[in-house]
Write a structure and sequence with these properties.
By secondary structure, the chain is an alpha+beta fold. The protein has one domain. The chain is about 20% helix and about 35% strand. It is built from 4 helices and 7 strands. Strands 2-3-4-5-6 form a 5-stranded mixed sheet. The protein has a two-stranded antiparallel sheet with strand order 1-7. The longest helix is centred in the C-terminal third of the chain and has 12 residues. It is elongated and about 55 Å long. The chain binds zinc ion. Zinc ion (ZN) binds next to loops.
Length: about 170
């Protein structure tokens, strides 16, 4: 049951908490190394003061991407907050509550929950995913494969911190 009616969800305060397969999100999958995995989704409808319907929740998942710096695959955690103001058409944009993105959907029309979640995850996915600074290369090898001590680890521990108490005139 992937179709939701956002206006009805808001009006009745419906909510859900479940998982959606990444495999069903083709636009997102094209950007990933693998389509395996599931997206954890929470979504709840409510009507704010002034009769403004909204959907709030979150979508999170782990995706396999390739680091643009060292070209090694790694797992990236995506966390996408969902804050959507449900509007019937463009003319209602002025009614969009602060801090919400517009979700334009005519009354009594259903839309795909999978596509809605996919849109949010696409926004959360960085254009150029990469390891955290300093995490590329040997130190990115998973623990079970890193049987030997990493020579760079010793070097890293010799690096000095910035001198304390730097001055700014
Ligand atoms: Zn890297």
């Amino acid at each position: 049951m992937d179709a939701i009616d956002p206006h009805e969800w808001a009006r009745t305060g419906r909510q859900t908490h479940g998982t959606l397969p990444l495999a069903g999100m083709e636009r997102l999958r094209e950007l990933l190394e693998s389509g395996a995995g599931e997206v954890e989704v929470t979504l709840a409808g409510q009507v704010l003061a002034g009769g403004r319907p909204v959907l709030t929740g979150s979508a999170s998942c782990e995706v396999a991407v390739r680091c643009r710096r060292c070209l090694e695959p790694f797992t990236l955690r995506l966390e996408a907050p969902i804050r959507l103001g449900v509007l019937r058409d463009d003319a209602e944009l002025a009614r969009l509550p602060d801090g919400y993105e517009p979700l334009i959907c005519p009354v009594d029309q259903e839309l795909s929950l999978t596509q809605l979640v996919e849109d949010e995850l696409l926004l959360a996915l960085p254009d150029h995913p990469h390891h955290a600074d300093g995490a590329c290369g040997p130190s990115a090898v998973p623990a079970q494969q890193a049987g030997k001590r990493q020579p760079f680890a010793a070097l890293a521990s010799l690096r000095k911190n910035d001198p304390p108490g730097g001055h700014h005139d």
